[in-house]
Task: inverse folding
């Protein structure tokens, strides 16, 4: 934060405007596409959030880490456990809600980032990669050790604290689509251990099933309005005021209590038809998830932008390029690396908290080695040291499996080939990019543009 | 006390496997100063090839020989296509490239053989041996595994200390320029190092498969164990890799025995973290693990 | 004889050597002297095949060396002892020597091995010790011994005096001079310490900014006062 203060105010405003503009455009896009696209947008924004941290850690600070998937797990579990177990924030009477849970996830990120950073920041390349590999494999395994607390291999179902009131319904068809399309995105990369479970993370059956009494007031097929909506506080609606970037409030927070009367996805799935009423019109679960993910991604992106383009970014690059020279100039290489770990860890935790809300589930299978590897794949393909590259990488991670699925449908590939084709492509692309274009897509484009400009300036 | 003894003995078999995989990591590290995170991917792929041969011929030894050949070829391919060109780049690039290879190999194996776990036929008895009227936590197969590991370690030690090729490989590992100026064909020597590592890893895969099963991801955890052993052993030291590999096997066996096998990865992680925090260069090594 | 014709080397925008021509006859020591950055080491590394020349060529007794890789150049008879006592510290003295000329037959190598121990008795005494336990002078002898194990027709010595005591330097260089005469090999010696180098050399070449600015007998160059002032700084 000290470095933020040193920035010329103009740049801060510039970055804020940029982040706000991206947010506004994405919200507009989000509002005008179908549910499936909403879902993809949510995943892309979630990946981008985590990968902003990878850009700082791997790209700028030069530390190849595979631990960020595990750090996402930490954020996800903290979010899930605090929302599930706390009615109010301990020692206070403040009611828990999604924002508080995300805040706790971020704090957890700081703590774990500090621990891993202190352990890893002094290590050179392969040692760090190996240690973080161990973390990626080991931390999700801890969930299996304490099934009572963490839900073991099957994980925890989450009653997502989305807003009261205004619930519309998701059409039956989109619900089905949701279920069939999901596994391909989930299985983007092989995950250790519970890979078998990864495919059926989000089937109708394991959607969190609410308290029967809460459902009782709503007959299947009923339109949900504020009136028949279980346990709502209509006043909460007032707080939902889109437009303010810095308050995550635009993902409405009320009703965040893990009260079993909170609405659950099961209700959404059993209901059919679309809302016609003015109040409930427009609430689509995927759209809301995407809004949340976009908001978090924009805030994190804004912070990352300031760090990367500010003094801290120069420090990271200096340490990466020549730690001795940096140390001679009065920079602590170890300190700068720990900082990179902490920042990327906070971003990863927030992404993890968003991820579990998208999945309405948290479990070791979702956060295996595969997730860590896919984050690495994403930033390498997009461009290791570019925030834009992280966004491009996130898009690639979500788009490629869908593209392959489409292709497979056209060509009639069998399932075995289709399921593995995206990873084969990722693996080969990563090798190819490292060999031929280490800057990834963004780096290559920059080089091309630079060449064109230098040529035109020479000829002109 | 006898229970502890049983746990310790029970760890020797898996320790030998970890030792072999750690040995493979050390071989590639010594050859090219790259930790090959794709090593278990290569071993997994090799083991699937061996499984196919086994299914075809029904002969375990033919399958093992097939794995040795396939492991060598795969090692050469990976080194030649990926690491040779990438060596000129930064270390991050080399590390990332090995992970790229790992992802691609796992996906390719999934495409060819499917993602489900498959049983690898048991070539020798896997029932506990009874000697001196007592049942020991070791099977005939465990003894075969230990025997194979011992033979490979002895063979490698002789290769490195007694032959011209071994001398060339050691010199290339420590100072490639002087090796080159002495007339050693460095590129070829590095490739042989990778081929050897591929063989050792492949044999480890074939040996471990009957006791667990094999799927594209089933060796991931072995990578963590082997890396732990190799790093604590010093990454440079063949003896270190073997000693710490077996040691890691014993520790994990004891931890699993007294608590639960799902604690093994965490135990390995704790071992690795402690080592890196206290003595990152390892017990037998003199590598620079820390940069600052 | 080692002949260098019109050799140029470029590192990106930097012209490290430009149009260098010189002959190194057998049985003699030819000294290349010049200030830091004159291109001396580049010349040696190019001859040894570690650096690719931009243009020009070098040949040994009519066999073209340029374009071959270092491991082949040494097999053709040109052995480089690079700057900085380059041995493999982790290997023993014996192993360092065995490393040289692994492609030669066992009997040939055994013979050279014995000759090297004759020439550098201290290495024989320390044969089982790791190279990193040797003193600077001993390591330099080991480095030269390793090069000799390759049975060179031409020996390239890059700054053998670096960091060594003057007495040891004199000993080593005298030995090199004797070697050139007795075994009839061509020796190219690069030195920053011009006085020492010209004392043992027959011929001298002065390099400045990648170009040969003067060549002649060692005594001519040593007595050329303007040259000394301009390029050698003493």
Result:
């Amino acid at each position: 934060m000290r470095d933020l203060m040193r920035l010329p105010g103009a740049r801060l405003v510039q970055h804020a405007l940029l982040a706000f503009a991206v947010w506004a455009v994405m919200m507009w896009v989000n509002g005008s596409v179908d549910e499936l696209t909403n879902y993809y947008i949510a995943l892309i924004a979630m990946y981008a959030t985590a990968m902003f941290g990878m850009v700082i850690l791997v790209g700028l600070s030069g530390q190849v880490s595979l631990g960020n998937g595990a750090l996402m797990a930490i954020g996800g579990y903290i979010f899930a456990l605090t929302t599930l177990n706390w009615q109010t924030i301990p020692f206070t009477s403040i009611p828990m809600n999604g924002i508080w849970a995300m805040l706790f996830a971020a704090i957890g990120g700081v703590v774990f980032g500090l621990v891993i950073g202190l352990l890893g920041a002094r290590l050179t390349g392969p040692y760090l990669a190996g240690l973080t590999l161990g973390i990626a494999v080991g931390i999700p395994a801890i969930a299996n050790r304490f099934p009572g607390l963490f839900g073991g291999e099957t994980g925890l179902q989450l009653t997502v604290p989305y807003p009261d009131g205004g619930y519309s319904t998701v059409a039956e068809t989109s619900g089905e689509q949701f279920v069939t399309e999901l596994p391909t995105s989930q299985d983007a990369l092989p995950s250790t251990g519970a890979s078998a479970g990864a495919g059926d993370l989000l089937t109708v059956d394991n959607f969190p099933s609410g308290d029967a009494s809460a459902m009782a007031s709503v007959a299947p097929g009923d339109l949900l309005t504020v009136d028949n909506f279980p346990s709502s506080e209509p006043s909460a609606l007032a707080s939902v005021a889109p437009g303010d970037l810095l308050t995550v409030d635009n993902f409405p927070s009320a009703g965040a209590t893990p009260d079993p009367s909170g609405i659950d996805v099961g209700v959404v799935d059993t209901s059919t038809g679309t809302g016609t009423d003015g109040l409930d019109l427009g609430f689509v679960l995927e759209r809301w998830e995407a809004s949340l993910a976009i908001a978090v991604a924009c805030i994190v992106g804004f912070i990352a932008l300031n760090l990367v383009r500010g003094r801290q970014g120069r420090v990271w690059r200096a340490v990466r390029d020549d730690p001795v020279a940096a140390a001679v100039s009065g920079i602590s290489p170890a300190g700068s690396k720990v900082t990179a770990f902490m920042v990327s860890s906070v971003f990863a935790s927030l992404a993890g908290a968003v991820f579990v809300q998208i999945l309405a589930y948290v479990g070791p299978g979702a956060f295996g080695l595969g997730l860590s590897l896919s984050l690495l794949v994403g930033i390498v393909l997009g461009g290791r040291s570019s925030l834009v590259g992280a966004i491009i990488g996130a898009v690639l991670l979500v788009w490629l499996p869908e593209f392959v699925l489409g292709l497979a449908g056209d060509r009639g590939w069998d399932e075995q080939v289709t399921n593995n084709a995206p990873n084969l492509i990722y693996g080969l692309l990563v090798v190819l990019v490292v060999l031929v274009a280490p800057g990834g897509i963004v780096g290559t484009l920059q080089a091309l543009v630079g060449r064109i400009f230098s040529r035109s300036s020479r000829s002109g | 006390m006898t229970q502890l003894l049983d746990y310790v003995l029970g760890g020797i078999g898996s320790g030998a496997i970890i030792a072999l995989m750690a040995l493979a990591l050390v071989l590639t590290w010594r050859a090219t100063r790259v930790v090959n995170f794709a090593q278990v991917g290569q071993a997994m792929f090799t083991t699937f090839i061996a499984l196919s041969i086994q299914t075809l011929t029904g002969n375990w030894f033919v399958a093992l020989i097939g794995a040795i050949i396939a492991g060598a070829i795969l090692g050469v391919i990976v080194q030649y296509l990926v690491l040779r060109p990438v060596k000129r780049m930064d270390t991050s690039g080399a590390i990332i490239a090995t992970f790229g290879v790992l992802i691609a190999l796992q996906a390719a194996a999934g495409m060819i053989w499917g993602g489900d776990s498959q049983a690898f036929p048991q070539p020798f008895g896997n029932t506990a041996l009874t000697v001196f009227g007592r049942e020991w936590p070791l099977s005939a197969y465990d003894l075969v595994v230990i025997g194979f590991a011992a033979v490979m370690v002895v063979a490698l030690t002789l290769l490195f200390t007694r032959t011209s090729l071994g001398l060339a490989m050691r010199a290339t590992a420590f100072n490639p320029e002087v090796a080159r100026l002495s007339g050693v064909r460095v590129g070829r020597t590095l490739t042989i190092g990778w081929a050897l590592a591929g063989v050792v890893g492949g044999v480890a895969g074939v040996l471990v498969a009957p006791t667990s099963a094999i799927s594209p991801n089933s060796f991931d955890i072995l990578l963590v164990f082997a890396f732990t052993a190799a790093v604590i052993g010093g990454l440079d030291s063949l003896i270190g890799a073997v000693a710490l590999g077996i040691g890691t096997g014993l520790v994990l066996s004891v931890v699993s025995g007294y608590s639960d096998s799902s604690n093994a990865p965490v135990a390995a992680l704790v071992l690795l973290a402690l080592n890196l925090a206290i003595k990152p260069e390892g017990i037998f090594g003199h590598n620079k693990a820390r940069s600052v | 004889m080692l002949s260098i014709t019109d050799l140029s080397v470029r590192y990106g925008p930097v012209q490290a050597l430009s149009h260098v021509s010189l002959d190194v006859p057998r049985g003699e020591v030819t000294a290349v002297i010049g200030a830091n950055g004159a291109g001396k080491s580049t010349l040696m590394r190019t001859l040894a095949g570690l650096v690719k020349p931009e243009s020009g060529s070098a040949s040994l007794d009519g066999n073209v060396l340029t374009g071959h890789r270092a491991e082949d150049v040494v097999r053709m008879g040109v052995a480089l002892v690079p700057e900085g006592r380059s041995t493999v510290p982790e290997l023993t003295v014996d192993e360092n020597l065995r490393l040289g000329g692994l492609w030669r037959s066992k009997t040939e190598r055994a013979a050279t091995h014995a000759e090297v121990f004759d020439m550098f008795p201290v290495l024989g005494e320390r044969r089982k010790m790791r190279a990193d336990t040797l003193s600077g002078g001993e390591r330099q002898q080991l480095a030269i011994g390793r090069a000799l194990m390759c049975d060179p027709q031409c020996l390239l010595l890059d700054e053998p005096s670096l960091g060594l005591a003057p007495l040891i330097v004199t000993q080593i260089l005298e030995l090199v001079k004797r070697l050139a005469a007795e075994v009839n090999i061509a020796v190219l010696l690069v030195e920053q310490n011009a006085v020492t180098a010209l004392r043992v050399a027959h011929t001298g070449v002065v390099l400045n900014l990648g170009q040969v600015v003067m060549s002649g007998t060692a005594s001519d160059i040593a007595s050329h006062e303007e040259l000394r002032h301009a390029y050698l700084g003493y």
Q: What stands out?
A: Chain C touches chain B at residues 48, 50, 69-71, 74-75, 79-80, 82, 86-91, 95, 98-103, 146-147, 149-150 (CB under 8 Å). Strands of chain C lie at 2-11, 14-24, 29-33, 55-60, 63-64, 78-81, 154-158, 186-191, 203-208, 211-217. The CA atoms of residues 46 and 52 of chain C lie 6 Å apart.
